[in-house]
Specification:
Blueprint (H helix, E strand, L loop, with lengths): L2 E6 L7 H8 L22 E11 L2 E14 L14 E8 L3 H4 L4 E11 L23 E11 L7 E9 L34 H6 L1 E2 L5 E8 L6 H4 L19 E10 L9 E11 L9 H7 L2 E7 L4 H4 L3 H9 L5 H4 L1 H5 L2 H10 L12 H7 L4 E4 L35 E3 L10 E3 L12 H10 L7 E6 L33
Antiparallel strand pairs: 1-16, 2-3, 3-10, 4-5, 4-11, 5-6, 6-7, 8-9, 9-10, 11-12, 11-13, 14-15
């Protein structure tokens, strides 16, 4: 059921762009199948990007994450899902004047290197039970290097390695028992926890604490996105609550998590923009080089991009989807603004949900342009830490943080944060989650459809039409961690939900 209410607008045009960016989003979800060509290369196919303010051990961070490789069936063999050595994974942060330009100020490059202990076996990943990451039973091992490219001084770019790490094993089942309840490979994966010391041993051992204060993790995780994507792309024929269907339920992804100390990107009195890219290495022959030297010398061509979820799927026409993935947000104003200003999606919603009535505004969507152009997830860094999701409840061993709402500011009890640098809705009030950042647990489909149905062009007279529960999927299939790396434990190959 849809309901309508009015919210007081903000007082000055000077904050209109931020308010629109914080409150508006179209029907968009997880970018699992966003463009024709990228669907042919799963390891470079971005599924989700996350960005929010976090606090860990008394330190403030911009928490970021990039997930790739959609629809990983847990526990396959003999080959395994993994990061691609020929793909460079990058998380970009735009600050200052670069924010509106869509230009990365800081880029964090992840390069992976795969080794096999024994190539004379069919047991690609596991030769024995794994009790510690990288032990003798783990045949396939992946390591990685993280390089920071600092462009804050345009005349003097700087590069430095901020950390190196190892990827923990995938959750196969009996050979990876410590991921699972009671350390039993026949049991489902362990639920989310609130403190680092309670994480499973594989995850604990794989977190990198860099000398510069970064927290880094890369490995298999549960797919943290939840929604009925089948219904959305099946004529918007949503199911009833007793027929709820989580399209990503029971699947894993490969996830990179990076907590960036705020002092590394200019401090907390600013708004930052986050997006991610994947780039494929151009094939070349470099004899007598190590794997790391070969990667450093290689040329990479961008093939994937994501900022806010589902802009490419929900707005950009087929003719330009691959172009979106090959370009940076600096090109968005010239190439893709028209798709946000006159969204075809609004026309389709009017036709399919409202019988042709003009319920959703189809023209002059300047509010959508202000969100998506350039396509970055904007995060106000001056607020306190965002509230985090746990098990989706307010009770149990890992409840949601007090005040967390999967609907953010659109919740029955709004989940908001207070800015120190802008007025927001008055007194600095901003959304507590997406689209002011994006947290694990944000119900992006319900938030998005609410925003699309609403009229946010007049910041002094916002009309909000709620779509709470429209797709009948209100929780993830696994509980999140309220500590780094936040994403839920990877599902057990022997024992996991599947719809």
């Amino acid at each position: 059921m849809l309901c309508s209410k009015r919210l007081p607008g903000v007082c000055s045009l000077g904050i209109a762009l931020l308010t629109a960016a914080s409150l508006t989003a179209p029907v968009r979800a997880s970018s699992h199948m966003d463009a024709p060509l990228i669907t042919l290369l799963d390891a470079a196919n971005t599924t989700d990007v996350y960005a929010f303010v976090a606090e860990q051990d008394g330190r403030q961070y911009l928490a970021t994450a990039l997930a790739v490789y959609p629809f990983e069936e847990p526990g396959i063999g003999p080959n395994a899902f993994r990061f691609d050595d020929n793909v460079r994974y990058e998380i970009h942060v735009a600050t200052g004047d670069d924010l509106q330009k869509g230009k990365p100020t800081f880029s964090y490059q992840f390069d992976f290197f795969t080794k096999f202990r024994n190539r004379n076996t069919i047991l690609q990943s596991f030769q024995d039970v794994i009790l510690n990451v990288g032990d003798d039973g783990q045949n396939l091992t992946q390591t990685y290097r993280v390089t920071l490219v600092d462009r804050s001084d345009p005349k003097n770019w700087k590069r430095r390695i901020i950390g190196k790490g190892v990827v923990p094993p995938n959750n196969q089942g009996n050979v990876t028992p410590l991921y699972n309840i009671n350390d039993d490979g026949e049991m489902p994966a362990k639920g989310g926890v609130a403190t680092r010391n309670l994480l499973d041993p594989y995850t604990q051992q794989s977190i990198v604490d860099s000398k510069d204060g970064y927290l880094i993790f890369a490995g298999q995780r549960d797919d943290g996105f939840y929604a009925d994507i089948q219904a959305i792309f099946d004529g918007l024929m949503f199911r009833q609550p007793d027929q709820s269907f989580d399209s990503q339920g029971g699947f894993n992804v490969h996830t990179i998590c990076l907590n960036i100390p705020l002092e590394e990107i200019g401090g907390d009195m600013q708004v930052a923009g986050v997006f991610a890219t994947t780039s494929r290495r151009v094939l070349s022959v470099l004899p007598d080089c190590s794997d790391e030297e070969r990667t450093r010398k290689a040329k990479f061509v961008q093939i994937g991009r994501q900022g806010n979820p589902l802009f490419c799927e929900g707005f950009v026409a087929i003719a330009d989807k691959d172009k979106y993935n090959r370009t940076l947000p600096t090109a968005d104003r010239n190439l893709f603004a028209r798709y946000a200003k006159e969204p075809e999606l609004a026309v389709l919603v009017n036709q399919l949900l409202f019988g042709g009535d003009s319920v959703v505004i189809e023209k002059d969507r300047t509010d959508l342009v202000s969100i998506f152009i350039p396509d970055l997830i904007r995060v106000d860094l001056s607020t306190g830490p965002a509230r985090l999701a746990g098990d989706g409840q307010m009770v149990g061993t890992n409840p949601d943080d007090t005040g967390f709402s999967r609907l953010g500011i659109f919740g029955e009890e709004p989940d908001v944060l207070i800015s120190q640098i802008q007025d927001g809705f008055g007194g600095g009030v901003l959304p507590g989650g997406w689209p002011n950042g994006r947290r694990f647990g944000d119900d992006v489909v319900d938030i998005a459809i609410t925003a699309l149905l609403s009229d946010l062009r007049d910041v002094n007279n916002l009309i909000i039409n709620s779509a709470d529960g429209i797709d009948a999927v209100n929780n993830n299939d696994a509980s999140y961690h309220r500590t780094f790396p936040y994403a839920a434990t990877p599902l057990n190959g022997r024992n996991h939900p599947h719809h």
